Amino acid sequence: MKVEKISNRQLLFILFMIQSTIILSTLPVFTTGNADQNAWIAAIMSTFGMVAIAAYIGGLSLKFPGLTVIEYSSLLLGKYAGAFFSFSFLWVFLHIAATDTRIYADLIGGQFLRETSFTFIITVMVVLSALAVYMGIETIGRAADALFPWFLLFVLLSLGVSLTGFDIQNLQPVLAQGWGPVLSSTASPIGFAAHVIALTMLIPALNKPEKGVTVGMQAMLAAGIILTMAAVLVPGVFGPQHGKYLRYPFFTMLKTVSPTQFFERFDVLSVLAWGFGLFIDVAVYLYCGSIGLSQLMGLRDNRPLIGPMAVIWVIVAVSSYDDIFDVLRLFQPHVLLPYVTTFLYLPFLLLWLVYLVRYFTGTLPAVPAKKGKERS
Q1: Which of 82, 273, 291, 364 is a Cys-bridge partner for 77, taking CB atoms 3.0 to 4.6 Å apart?
Q2: What are the C-alpha distances in Å from 205 to residues 5, 19, 208, 293, 372?
Q3: How far apart are CA 13 and CA 218, in angstroms?
Q4: H/E run at residue 14
């Protein structure tokens, strides 16, 4: 397997854009729970949960330097049990990217390109990301470097513009129904923290892998700050009851506000930011999936797998959901959290338990030396 490197800064940009993109698209802390005007409190609590998930998911990578989750799963559990769990992780890579792509394609097709084939929109997005993957993780890292300033600028401008329609009275009363609705609203954002699984495949590609988990936690913290700001503004503009039933509350908010008589349609800012984030999102998960599968198959190069996997990405994105409402049903707390727990959080719990048992019994396997060369 050829070795490529990205900087810790690029990893921070990648994880922040991935997590913030899905947060801004659906604002789960507001639309999937009953926190209503207290969604900002749920967002703050969710931020701590997302940071903890980053430490939980990425922590084992520090115990097995230079290995991906696919590799150290087999090392801890054995060849066949490790492969079984690895396929679970590969499914998560596929399903996350396909779902995120489907949401964005629904927005583009429904709001801007109504005459364009839905499948064509998804195909174009996946093909562009696949080209970046073919050129390597270093290319994706440089793309994140180039896109991050614009992504952050568009997000901050979107948040700033929204202040013109903000009414603080819409955020009152605080905790009128107690903590129950607030706690229930944290489930979906913590489920969305599954996006940080990319960390387990990217840490070996870092210049300073020992700081990878810290970078992941910083990215989740920054994304949580964006989540909190959005959770203040959306109910502050729409009111707690109207906003929670919107498909794209953040996007719709920007269509609604008009700070001047001469400039309108600030929703394009969120669409551009979302598009930049989605490009990085799909490219990273296609890279992770192809690298993981190549490691399971014993291949030294992941590039022959990129084309076939891109086709599968498109098929899953098109066929997995009947409509956008089917996607949003997945995001409900009673569906998303058990789903993510089954395919991701519980497998990592088992890996941690096996690691601890083997550590205290002195039976930890030695980490094999990896051979590779820089891609020219």
Answers
A1: 82
A2: 5, 20, 9, 17, 12
A3: 10
A4: helix 8-26
CB atoms within 10 A of CB 265: 10
Could you tell me what percentage of the chain is helix, strand and coil, using 3-state DSSP and rounding each to the nearest 5? 80, 0, 20
pLDDT tens-digit profile of 118-161?
A: 888 889 989 999 999 999 999 999 999 999 999 999 888 888 88
- Which secondary structure element, helix H or strand E, spans residue 164, and what is its range? none
Q: What is the pLDDT of residue 181?
A: 80
Reported as a single tens digit per residue, the pLDDT across 182-211 is 888 888 888 888 899 999 999 999 999 999
| Domains, the chain, ordered by start | 8-259+277-360 (1.20.1740.10)
The helix/strand/coil state of 369 is: coil
Phi, psi angle pair for 250, to nearest 5°: -70, -45
Give me Rg for the CA atoms of the chain.
21
**43-71: per-residue pLDDT in tens?**
899 999 999 999 999 999 999 988 999 99
What whole-number distance in Å separates Cα of residue 314 and Cα of residue 307? 11
Residues shown for the chain: 376
What is the pTM (predicted TM-score) of this model? 0.91
Which residue is listed with tokens 């300073």? 208
Among 185, 143, 147, CA closest to 47: 185
- Phi first, then psi: what are they for 6, rounded to 5°? -125, 160
Q: Is 79 exposed, middle or buried (0-12, 13-18, 19+ CB in 10 A)?
A: exposed
